[in-house]
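--- STAGE predict ---
source: upstream dedup step, 1 unique chain passed
mode: sequence only
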Amino acid sequence: MTKYFTEVVCQAHDIDRQIFDAVVPEIADALFSLDGGAGASFSTDPRAFTVTFGFMFSSRSRKDAIEKSKVIARTALHASGGVTAGWDDEPDGSPEFEPVDFETVSASAQTEREKVAA
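--- STAGE serialize ---
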């Protein structure tokens, strides 16, 4: 098993700033209450309407680490009242989230060694 730092960045579209600001604490509360979410990092950029989930996982592969992080991010969005329309239909595996149309901007993983070298 290799230790990976994973990051999933999601962006909201067609959403009012007040709604975005109201939904962010609900997403964070949901994230930190989940198994696997307790040690996560979470940040937002209200100008870009993005939320960023960060995790540290031991996994067999980079792909497994990314998938695990996307599942936890998706669950946090569901638990905060969002839906994930088209999640399984995305050809590149990039889900769309909806508290009001969140979509993944990026999902990545790097080993601890790669993170230190960056």
